[in-house]
Structure formats: structure tokens, C-alpha cells
Amino acid sequence: MDKETEYQRICDKLGFIPSEFKAPDFETEDDSWTNPFSALTVEENVFLYENGYLNNK
Predict the structure, then answer these.
(1) What is the pLDDT along the chain (57 residues), one digit of tens a residue?
(2) In the chain, where does DSSP find H-type helix?
(3) First-to-last C-alpha distance (Å) of the chain
């Protein structure tokens, strides 16, 4: 599969561009917050990491 096509599919699944995601800054632990990347499979997370799509540009 083409890298850009796979990246676009993952962005559509997340609903945002992974490199632009800013996690909330919690003062204390918040068990009610769900990490949006948990919607991805391990393979999708590895794809983003290995291809540099999680780096801030």
C-alpha cells in the first residue's frame, strides 16, 4: 500500500493530523481521559512512528 494513502486513511480514522496533536496538560492523573491513538491498531501506530509521522514539523 502507498505510504501517503495509508497515512491519509489513519488521519481520517483519528480525525486529526497526528503530528499536530497536543495532549492535555493534566495537573493530576485523569482516568476519564482516553488517548485518541488507542483507536489505532498496533500496526497503525508503528507505521506512524517508523515513517516519522509523529514528529512535529
Answers:
(1) 699 999 999 999 999 999 999 988 888 888 888 999 999 999 999 999 999 999 875
(2) 3-14, 42-50
(3) 24
Gap between the Cα atoms of 27 and 20, Å rounded = 22
pTM of the model: 0.83
| C-alpha separations of 51 from 4, 6, 11, 20, 47 in Å | 10, 11, 14, 15, 6
Rg over CA atoms, the chain: 13
Half-sphere exposure of 37 (CA within 13 A, CB side): 17
What is the SS3 assignment for 30?
A: coil
